[in-house]
Amino acid sequence: MPNFSPFDTSAAPVPAGPTGLGAYTLSLRAALQPYRPRFEGFEDGDGHEGSGPPAWSVTLPSVSGGERRHSLAPLAYREREWGDGTYPPLYCPETVRVDDDLGEEVNRRLVAWAERTGIHEGRMEEFAATGFGRLAMLAHPDSDDPDMVLIAAQMNAAWWAADDYYADETELGAAPTELPPRLALVTSAMDPPPDAGEYTVQLEEAVRGDPVLVALRSATSHVARHSSPGQVMRIRNITSQMYVSWAAYAAWRYLETPPPVWRYLAARQHDSFYTSMTLIDIVGGYELPADLFGEQRFHTALMQAGTASVLVNDLHSVAKEAADELPDSNVILLIAAEEGCSIREATERAVHLHNHFVRGFERSRRELSALPFPELKRFLRGAQGWMAGCLEWHGSTSRYQS
Ligand SMILES: CC(C)=CCC/C(C)=C(\C)COP(=O)(O)OP(=O)(O)O
Q: Which residues form the signal peptide (predicted)?
């Protein structure tokens, strides 16, 4: 392996040859490859199973050429029954894949990994039954590889562990005044800051002493094995962006002053399954280039999909959230309080809002379909798959059964 100094730009191969979005991404990947081992120390026990070079270092299969197992065609929508079937239906794509064997295998690996990290110690049966492995199987239909699907199961389980232990569950030690400093440590666990001598030693001790931080760091390591540096940075930054909203909820809980619905929604739209959906291309083994990921119409579409899915979460978790001694923000509870209406009527309004976001996503997707980028089409289909799998999972997990 040539010994390139990271600061000697003359030593790096200069991207040459064909230009264009895909060509640029591939030649940049090749040019950066020699630097990568200097920065990336993957964690032992991060759940990765497989041999050969890290996925990032090989040329990823083109989604436009060769045998294409997964169609780029958009999924059909349906009015789907949910809950006890007495509420108006949710407008949502069809679930693409239910592969129980794959879901169980991913869950088995997830539980083994969770035991190593220490999250949910003393509650492992409950954690296993929650079925985050099944969620990842349902929500990421464009990979059949348990190692790739595990990435999504781990990241979601780790984000949810932070949600339970830091933000929502008073019984598990969540406390609004402790939330912001804990979230700041998450950022340092997922994105270790440069060495500060003795202070870094103390930081490391703090990270190792908190299973939630261990899990987030370990899951990020598994992500990094299969991603470009840009994709890893995307996950880190979007996690921190989501945490701004968590800080707002903590203030509202502490002050016991529920926000108006508009204000909750403004925060919730940045704290949604958009975060989880940023894993779609990583799990699929390709990369949506940053300029397409950041394209405003695409960003809007993904936020519409993420918001719709998180409203599904609010619909299923209302009883659980109302039961905490410091109730968490939930759109149904907030609509009922603001409108002075029943929970049933507030639920119907939330369903309407969900369907509004799905129809908005569909409009955005149609507008974007004119763009000639297969990765974009594949990602948008992935977002449809995510919405569908998310609805399927919320209806079947033990997490929201009271
Ligand atoms: C935790 C995670 C996977 C982040 C993305 C979506 C999100 C913010 C949540 C599902 C957390 O929301 P909430 O606290 O309402 O979830 P639960 O009702 O506790 O499952």
A: none
